[in-house]
Structures are given as C-alpha cells and as structure tokens.
Amino acid sequence: MDPRQKLALASIAVAIVVLGLKYAAYHVTGSVALYSDALESIINVATALVAFYAIRVSLQPADADHPYGHTKAEYFSAVFEGALIVVAALLILREAYFAYLAPRQIEAPALGLAINAGASILNAGWAWILIRKGRALRSHALQADGRHLLADVATSIGVLIGLVAAIATGIPQLDPALAALVALNILWAGWQVMRESVGGLMDQAASPDTIARIRELISAHAEGAIEAHDLRTRHAGRVTFLDFHLVVPGTLSVSEAHDICDRIERAVRAEFEGCLVTIHVEPENKAKHSGIVVL
C-alpha cells in the first residue's frame, strides 16, 4: 500500500481514539466546552475518512478521461474538510448559546481535564507526523489534515485553561463563553484550509522561491540555447506542471535541441520530484530578450 494511504488509514484510527477520549471527558464533566471539543473530533473522523478516499483516487494513474492524472482529488478533500469545520462551529455556537442561558455545574473536573489533556497530546504528536510526512510525500490532503489537528490542539489547550479558570472563579458562564471562542477559532481554521485548497483548484502558481530555483536550473542546464521565456507553473496535488519556450539557434538540429530539453528536464525533476515539464522549442527570431538568459 502507498505510504500516503497508510498514513490516511492511521489518521482514521487516531481520530476515533481521540474522539472516544474527548467524549469521555465531556461525559464525566458535563462541560459544554469539552462537548465542543468532542464535536470537533467527530469532524476529524469524517475528514480522515474523506482524506483516505481522496488520496486513493489521487493515486490512480492517468487515463483517457483524465490524461493529466487524478492528483487534484486531494484538494476536494481539503475543501470538504473546511466545510465540515464550518458546520461544527455553528453547532458549537448553538450549544454554547443555550448553555449560557442555563449554565451547567461542572462535575469531576480533574478527571475530565486529565482525559482531555491525554487526547490533546496524542493529537499533537500525530499532527506533527502528518505535516512532516505530508510535505515529504507532497500530499496536500495529509498536510491539511495535520494543520487541522494542530488547530484542534490549540483549541483543546484553550479549553483546558478556560475550564481551570471557570472552576477556580466559580463562574459557570465561562464554560459556554469558552465554547463560543472555540467555535470562532475552528471557523478561522476551516477558512484557512478552504482558501489554500481553492488556490490549488484554481491552478495557483508555484511559490516564488520554487519559481526562482526553476529559473536557475533552466539557466544552468540549457547550454547551447539562447534563452527561455514565458515560464508558467501550476500545482495539481503533489504534481507541479511546468512549461516554457526555449529559443535555440536556427542552425541547431532537432536532435541537438532535444538533447538540451532532456538535460533541463532531468535537472528539474531531480530537484522537484513529480514535476512534469513541457518545453516548446523556438528558432532564434522568436527571442524576446526578456526571459531566462542561458549561462
């Protein structure tokens, strides 16, 4: 099984365990803030399932209907995750409103806080693994899941601090007020996830640093050519598409021009795994004198 799928499957298992722990913390305390934290964990389970399916689809090879592959499926996973986060936030705000009108007494606070803290530690460790492995494997779905879990950890820390304050001051209204803050925090996290995913669906260009490095590689490995211009990039999941025009002397043979293109492609792919390069060769009269100068 592909390592991306293995990580996605493990995410489902971790999300279920964390959900069980957080629901147990809510069950023993009756805290609406802990309820909101547990409700977000339900979203974590759902998004982990969707991420697994999206990664499985993205790994399918190109076919007649999808000649550029299926890698963009991971972006749909992240958009769906963002939408679910928004739904969870609205449900938490509703619960917080009614709990504020009728404050509840928090029971067994020490046990509930300890259980919730254990779940948060597990979440933090797994989020770190997902982000690190997601970057290495160039999986947008895994990275989005990891960032969402980090937001969940931050939420849980806020909940723990707030509940300690509510218990210490004896003000039960702090509990639902804290739940409302949790909702606003995960709304922001959901927006961030959706914004980044929409950028990928809209064929957003590679980062400025990546483009600068690609220009350097073209310049250094295009010996025999005159210049390169009209460089374009776009992301589709873990794949980066790159195309540009390469101007060569008119006296160069097709075979010699092809050798230059092969040299550039090898250099780019060696540094950016999964990069698909398309080069349009042009004669010297097409030079724009404003692109990438060949060293």
Describe this structure in words.
- With 295 residues, this protein is an alpha+beta fold.
- The chain has 2 domains: 3-201, Alpha-lytic protease prodomain-like (Up-down Bundle); 208-293, Alpha-Beta Plaits, CATH 3.30.70.
- 68% of the residues lie in helices and 10% in strands.
- It has 8 helices and 4 strands.
- It has helices at residues 3-29, 32-58, 73-101, 109-137, 140-169, 174-201, 208-221, 254-271; strands at 227-236, 239-248, 276-283, 292-293.
- It has a 4-stranded mixed β-sheet with strand order 3-2-1-4, with helices on one face.
- 40% of the residues are buried.
- The mean pLDDT is 82.
CATH class designation of the largest domain:
Mainly Alpha
Distance between the termini: 44 Å
CATH architecture of the largest domain: Up-down Bundle
- What is the string of SSEs from the N terminus onward? HHHHHHHEEHEE
- Number of helices, counting only DSSP H or I runs of 4 residues or more: 8
User: What class would the helix/strand composition place it in?
Assistant: alpha+beta
Family: Belongs to the cation diffusion facilitator (CDF) transporter (TC 2.A.4) family.
Membrane topology: Multi-pass membrane protein
Protein name: Protein p34
Pfam families: Cation_efflux (PF01545), ZT_dimer (PF16916)
